[in-house]
Each structure stands twice: as structure tokens, then as C-alpha cells.
């Protein structure tokens, strides 16, 4: 069991975590026809927008209520109303997701009451689905904002009540913020292999998978449709991916009675087996041969790669669910987790990380501890590249944001196929560090001289050493 440490520092140097409002905005972007709205100052939105655009390399329809000095004192309800009306008239979104920021939350405004009053007065907003999630910057990190936004969507848009007539083929998938578009496609394909129709919320594989639209649209194109969200109560079961999705799964089960299962990890052989067994139980269908073949490929990849990962010293810095997912994966292949740094202490999974300690800190803590532990590989997002350069270590990019590599949304780490590809990626990093011997290496090597020992006894032979 890992010991959870939280160093007492006056400030964060080279921050590791991204804010909760940004996590909420990313979740809202997984809904079709959506516009995320930050209730706060323009700078809050600009910073989040910059990170999201650099990571996804796509246009982001993020908007702000533009709170200034006067509204900070007198209240921002008028700005919220004006922003909602302007968005409705100019962009005609199907869905607006509101995320609060530290500025509004610190003042202690009744945003829920303000929103209710606005909806009663402005009837033109009735044709737009609007939800609000409380996500102050000073509480939690990316995972927390994502989870709160998904829970708010479920509470606000799912039609409550248990269904007598269930869809025999529908299941609900609640992916975590650490799932890429390719990860979501991977889970959907595995569900379809059992004849199941997966409703994914949020679905970044539809809105932020890097496609090109026939014409420009100011709102999200693709993602979970509002009617699909409303009918999530018709599913046979709900599968949540990541411990931080537990509140959303519980909210959906409480509203509709649909039984839910939270899977903390989908990377590696054992985790993939757990998902496949669950899908088989839900569907009543035997495991298809295609998945058995993918499993066999993963086992072969593990045999090929364990020579290069066994005994390696790994340093990981990421959000809690991703730290747990990666640490268990590396540990299963014989590597040692010598440093684990995370963004928040809200997850019960942190105690289960296979390391001596987990530090809630920043990338300065990560770099210092990785150097002291003599790590062989740094595993974190793109902001860790300077630490890797200073330490002279290879850097495996994971999490959010990744802005110095292309195609991050098409990279999968879950399921049999995703775990196989990710394993080869890690194995190739260590393989590339092995310097092959050349004839020049042998020619330059010093050869010890031959020595002939004197014969001491009659029966003793000459010894060459």
C-alpha cells in the first residue's frame, strides 16, 4: 500500500495539474452541438482554450461570461444571462454546459438560483439544453471537473425512472478524462463484438477525433446526441471507466435503476480480461474469436517486451486514475515504480498504486524524486519534456496536454489491441537505447596479455590466464 504525501510548499513550480473547469469543458465537448461556457474572467477561458487547442489541434467553441472588476463586486448574473442569450442567437447550440471558475465561486454567488431565474424570464432559451457544474479552480483537478460535468449532464438531461421495457442491446459507457478518441473506439468495438450497442457519454471519438467537416460549424460536430442521453435509462448496464467516474455512474443508477460497474483500469491483460468477461455476462454471448486472437497477440507482445522492461525503474506523473493504470501495467511487466506524482488526493486508488509513496505535487517534485531514484524512464505529459532533457532520460508522453507529438487522439492504451500497441511503444523506447556493438568497438577494446605460469609440480600443466 502506497503512502500518500503532500509536500508543503508556498507555490507550484512547473505545475503538473490542469484545472477542474478545463476538465468540465472537455466533457461538455463530448456532446453533439455543444458550447462550453466558462462563468468567470476572460483569462480563465483563454488559458484553458490554449491548452485544449494545442492538445487536440482543433477549433474549440469555448466561450466566457467575461466577468470584470465591477461584476466581481456586484455579481455576475447579468453577464451569465447576456452570454446565454448571445450564444443562443448567434451560434444556435443544442447544448450549453456551464463551468464555474474560482472568481465566481470565491464570491459565493448562487449560480443555480441565477440560472433558474434566467430560464424563467428568457423563454428563447427553452429550446437549448443547459446544465451547470460547480468547478472552482482551487478544488481538485482535471479528473474532478470532468466527473462533475458528466454527473451534471446525467442529472439534467437523462429521463428519470426505471424502464420496464429495456433495450436488449444497449449499454452505457462512461469514459474517464484519460481516455482518448481511439480508446473510446476500442471499447465501442469490443462491445459491438458482443452484439451490444454502446451509448458513450461523453463521446470525444465523435467530436474531437480529428475529422474535417464539409463546412465550418461554431459548435461541436459529433459526440453524444441529446436523445441518446435522455434514453440512457433503457440500457442493460452501465460501465464506468476510472474511479473518478463513480459519482456519475451512481447518479445514473439512482435515476434509472440501470446497474453500474466501475472498472478502474483497462490497460493490460488482466484488466482487458475483466472487461471482456463483463461484456460476455451482460450480453449472454461467448467471447468472439476476434477478441481471442487479439488476446493472443497481447500475450505474445508481453513475451517479446518483458526482456526490455524487466527491472526498469519508472517515474510517473499524471492524474490519479492514469497513475494507477500505468503503474499497475508497468509492474505487471517486471518494472519498478520508483516515483509516482499526482495532481489531487481525492482518489482512493492512490493507496493501491504499487509504489512506496505517491506525492501530490508538481513537476519539480517529479524531477527531483526521479533524479534521486535513478529512474530509467519519465512518464508524464508534454510539460515534463524539460525535466527529461535536464536528466538525460527518455520521455513517454501520456495524459493531458500532449502538444509536441502528433496524432495523440488516435493512440490507444486500453483493451487487448491498445495494450499491445502501447507495450510495443514502451519496449521500442528501451530497445532504441541499446547500443549495438560494431567491429570498431572490438578493435578498440583492450585485450589482456597472455601469461604462462611456471610448472611447479610434475603433474601440473601450463595454465594460461
TrEMBL record:
GO MF term list: nitrogenase activity
Chain ranges of the Nitrogenase/oxidoreductase component domain: 19-429
Superkingdom of the organism of origin: Bacteria
Keywords (A to Z) from UniProt: Nitrogen fixation
Pathway(s) this gene product operates in, as recorded in its UniProt entry: Cofactor biosynthesis; Fe-Mo cofactor biosynthesis
An annotated GO BP: protein-containing complex assembly
InterPro entries, per database record: ChlB/BchB/BchZ (IPR050152), Nase/OxRdtase_comp1 (IPR000510), Nase_comp1_CS (IPR000318), Nase_Mo-Fe_CF (IPR005975)
Database matches in Pfam families: Oxidored_nitro
Record bears the keyword Nucleotide-binding: no
Ribonucleoprotein among keywords: no
Family: Belongs to the NifD/NifK/NifE/NifN family.
NCBIfam families (alphabetical): nifN
Function of the molecule: This protein may play a role in the biosynthesis of the prosthetic group of nitrogenase (FeMo cofactor).
Full protein name: Nitrogenase iron-molybdenum cofactor biosynthesis protein NifN
Amino acid at each position: 500500500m502506497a503512502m500518500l504525501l503532500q509536500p508543503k510548499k508556498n507555490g507550484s513550480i512547473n505545475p503538473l495539474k490542469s484545472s477542474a473547469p478545463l476538465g468540465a469543458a472537455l466533457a461538455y465537448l463530448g456532446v453533439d452541438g455543444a458550447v462550453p461556457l466558462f462563468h468567470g474572467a476572460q483569462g480563465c477561458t483563454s488559458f484553458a482554450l490554449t491548452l485544449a487547442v494545442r492538445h487536440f489541434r482543433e477549433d474549440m467553441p469555448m466561450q466566457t461570461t467575461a466577468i470584470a472588476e465591477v461584476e466581481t463586486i456586484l455579481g455576475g448574473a447579468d453577464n451569465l444571462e447576456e452570454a446565454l442569450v448571445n450564444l443562443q442567437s448567434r451560434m444556435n447550440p443544442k447544448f450549453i454546459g456551464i463551468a464555474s471558475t474560482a472568481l465566481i465561486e470565491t464570491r459565493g454567488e448562487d449560480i443555480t438560483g441565477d440560472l433558474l431565474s434566467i430560464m424563467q424570464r428568457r423563454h428563447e432559451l427553452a429550446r437549448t439544453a443547459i446544465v451547470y457544474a460547480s468547478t472552482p479552480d482551487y478544488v481538485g483537478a482535471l479528473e474532478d471537473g470532468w466527473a462533475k460535468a458528466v454527473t451534471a449532464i446525467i442529472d439534467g438531461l437523462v429521463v428519470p425512472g426505471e424502464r420496464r421495457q429495456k433495450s436488449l442491446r444497449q449499454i452505457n459507457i462512461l469514459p474517464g478524462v484519460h481516455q482518448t478518441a481511439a480508446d473510446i473506439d476500442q471499447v465501442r468495438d469490443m462491445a459491438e463484438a458482443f452484439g451490444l450497442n454502446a451509448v458513450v457519454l461523453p463521446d470525444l471519438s465523435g467530436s474531437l477525433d480529428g475529422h474535417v467537416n464539409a463546412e465550418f460549424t461554431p459548435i461541436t460536430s459529433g459526440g453524444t446526441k441529446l436523445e441518446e442521453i435522455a434514453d440512457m435509462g433503457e440500457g442493460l448496464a452501465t460501465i464506468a471507466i476510472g474511479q473518478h467516474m463513480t459519482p456519475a455512474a451512481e447518479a445514473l443508477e439512482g435515476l434509472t435503476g440501470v446497474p453500474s460497474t466501475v472498472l478502474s483500469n483497462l490497460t493490460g491483460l488482466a484488466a482487458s480480461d475483466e472487461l471482456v468477461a463483463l461484456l460476455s455476462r451482460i450480453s449472454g454471448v461467448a467471447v468472439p474469436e476476434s477478441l481471442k486472437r487479439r488476446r493472443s497477440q497481447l500475450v505474445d507482445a508481453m513475451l517479446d517486451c518483458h526482456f526490455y522492461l524487466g527491472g526498469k525503474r519508472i517515474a510517473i506523473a499524471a492524474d490519479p486514475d492514469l497513475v494507477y493504470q500505468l503503474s499497475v501495467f508497468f509492474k505487471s511487466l517486471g518494472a519498478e515504480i520508483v516515483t509516482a506524482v499526482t495532481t489531487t488526493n481525492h482518489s482512493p486508488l492512490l493507496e493501491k498504486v504499487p509504489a512506496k509513496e505517491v506525492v501530490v505535487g508538481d513537476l519539480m517534485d517529479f524531477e527531483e524524486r526521479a533524479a534521486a531514484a535513478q529512474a530509467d524512464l519519465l512518464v508524464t505529459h508534454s510539460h515534463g519534456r524539460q525535466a527529461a532533457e535536464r536528466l538525460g532520460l527518455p520521455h513517454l508522453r501520456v495524459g493531458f496536454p500532449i502538444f509536441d507529438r502528433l496524432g495523440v487522439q488516435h493512440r490507444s492504451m486500453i483493451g487487448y489491441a491498445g495494450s499491445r500497441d502501447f507495450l510495443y511503444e514502451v519496449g521500442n523506447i528501451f530497445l532504441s537505447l541499446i547500443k549495438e556493438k560494431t567491429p570498431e568497438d572490438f578493435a578498440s577494446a583492450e585485450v589482456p596479455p597472455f601469461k604462462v605460469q611456471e610448472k611447479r609440480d610434475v603433474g601440473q600443466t601450463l595454465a594460461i590466464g
